[in-house]
Amino acid sequence: MHMGEILFTTEKYQIINCNICGFNHLNPIPSKKEIDEFYQKKYFLEIKNGRTAASMQRLIDQKKVDEELAWLKSTLYCDIKSLFCRYLPEGSRNFCEIGCGSGHFLRYMIENGWIGIGIEPSENTFCQTKLDIKIFNNTLESFLTENPDAKNSFDAVAVANVLEHVIDPTEMLNGIKSLLNPNGIAYIRVPNDFSMLQLSANESSPIKNWWVAIPDHINYFTMESLEKFLIRNDFEILHKTTDFPMELFLLMGDNYVGNAEVGGICHKKRIQFDRSLSADSRMAIYSKFALQGIGRSCIFFVKQKNV
Question: Nearest to residue 96, comparing CAs of 106, 86, 104, 87?
Fold first, then answer.
């Protein structure tokens, strides 16, 4: 039975700091049937209607996608690719993205010489037809069952903004291990929620706990809890980093929560910050932020122990 300090309460759910799991999550945990139905039928509609995942919404909005991709390709996407190359043997190019969403990062990797596929459970994703990339419209569990040759065949696996959505994060990590070859590297990213900076901003914001997203976000990791969880599941940490701490805007009086106009201005400032730095400076700054638990996302590059 999951037990721990109660951090947030709704009529149906609590978010607890679970003593058993070692990270924050919903209690009770939604059923597999509830979650499968939500992601297969409703998730992308929620994004399109602007009710969740603002970063994903910008990648499927034709008015915003070009600017968004120009920023991502010159910063985050490039940094991820560089870190894969840093830690992988020369010539490693087999790539899989779990939960590939809009498909833009997968396409970026393919355009840069990688052999890539995506796994995406949502039926509403548009990426395969519009971006001409290979997507398996399935869960990771079903993909592994139906494609046994895929086991231990990938040099690099990306799992960005997925672990917060799944009923059993340990099962997801085991699936990642099944995909990776002995020298393989995984890039894992989740929101940095209930962090020190976020809680400080929460005190001054008129809208409380804005990062809570039910039912799609089941798990709420911090930098510390995700690192411990990965180590407990036999991963070795190669690199830890983050991205821009959006809560700084709130602490400086720019309340973007629920305000699309202010949010757009803050997002442009964030883009300007990222693009004004050299790649080395940007990566060094964000790595230092991560050591202090600061940043909007927890980003880890890991490999399996003792393979």
Answer: 106
The answer to whether domain 33-304 has CATH 3.40.50.150 is: yes
pLDDT digits (tens, 9 = 90+) for 102-144: 889 999 999 999 999 999 887 655 554 456 788 898 889 999 9
Residue entry with tokens 């990791």 = 221
Alpha-carbon distance of 180 to 157, in angstroms, equals: 7
The DSSP letter of residue 6 is E
- What rounded mean pLDDT belongs to the chain? 90
Q: Where are the domains of the chain?
A: 33-304
Tens digits of residue pLDDT in 46-59: 655 555 555 555 55
**Cβ atoms within 10 Å of 93's Cβ, excluding its own:** 18
Between the alpha carbon of residue 238 and those of residues 35, 130, 235, 265, 302, the distances in Å are 32, 35, 9, 34, 5
State phi, psi for 254 to the nearest 5 degrees: -95, 90
Q: Which of 116, 80, 79 is nearest to 100 (CA)?
A: 116
Which three-class secondary structure state does DSSP give residue 152? coil
The letter for the amino acid at 282 is R
Element (H, E) at 276: helix 260-276
- Position 41 scores a pLDDT of 62
182 preceded by cis ω (within 30°)?
A: no
Question: Rounded to an integer, what is the distance from CA 97 to the centroid of its chain?
Answer: 11
This prediction has a pTM of 0.92
